[in-house]
Amino acid sequence: MTEIWLRSNRRILAVGLIPGAAICVASAALFATTSSPGLRTLAVAGIVAGAILMGIVMRQLLRPRVAYSNGQVLFFLRAGGPIAVPLDVVEAFFLGQGPAYLPGTEEDSQETVNLVARLSQKYPEWMRCEVKPALGKWCEGYVSIRGTWCEPLTNEVIRRLNRRLGEVSRELAGHQS
C-alpha cells in the first residue's frame, strides 16, 4: 500500500478545475438552448473536452509529490509513473529555496520554498534524473521539489518527513536482520 508523505498543492490545482467546469457549463447551456444538430454536436464535444480537462486536473490533484511503498520512496516529478528510489538511498529532507516557475512570470522573478531530498553519494546511479522542470530539479544527488506545486512547506512538514523516513528505515532494517 502506498503511504503519502507529501501532497500536491491542492489549492492551485483546484483553480485549474475552473476552465474545464466553465467549458462543461457553457456547452451544457448551448446543448439545452439549441435544436440545431450541428450546435448540439459541438456542445457534446465541448462537454466531453471539459470533462477530459477536469479529469486530467483531478488526477494531478490526487497525485502526491512524495510517497512511500515497499521499501521505496516515490517521487512524482514527471508525467507517467513515479521515480522509485530505494529507501536506503534517501538520507534526509530539508527546506531550500529556488525559482517558483509560475506560469506567466519570468523564470527567475519569484522564489519559493522548496523541499530538498538529499540522496546518498554511495549510489551514483541516483545522482541525476530527468524531471519536469516546473515540478522540481534532480541534480548532484539532491532532489528539489518546488514548493509551488506541493502542500505548504513548514518546519513541521520537514520534521514529519524525516521522522517517517527514520521510522521506515528502522522497520526495514529490522526485517532484514
Count of the domains: 2
Rounded mean pLDDT is 90
What is the distance, rounded to the nearest whole angstrom, between the alpha carbons of the first and last residues? 23 Å
Give me the side-by-side strand order of the main sheet.
1-2-3-4
What secondary-structure arrangement, pairings included, does this model have?
Elements lengths: L2 E4 L3 H6 L1 H17 L3 H26 L3 E4 L2 E4 L7 E4 L3 E10 L11 E9 L16 E4 L2 E5 L8 H22 L1
Antiparallel strand pairs: 1-2, 2-3, 3-4, 5-6, 6-8, 7-8
How would you describe what is shown here?
The chain is an alpha+beta fold and 177 residues long. The protein has two domains: 8-62, no CATH class; 66-176, no CATH class. The chain is 40% helix and 25% strand. It is built from four helices and eight strands, in the order βαααβββββββα. The protein has helices spanning 10-15, 17-33, 37-62, 155-176; strands spanning 3-6, 66-69, 72-75, 83-86, 90-99, 111-119, 136-139, 142-146. It has a four-stranded antiparallel sheet with strand order 1-2-3-4, covered by helices on one side. It has a four-stranded antiparallel sheet with strand order 5-6-8-7, covered by helices on one side. A hairpin with a 2-residue loop joins β7 (136-139) and β8 (142-146). α2 runs antiparallel to α3 (37-62). The two termini are 23 Å apart.
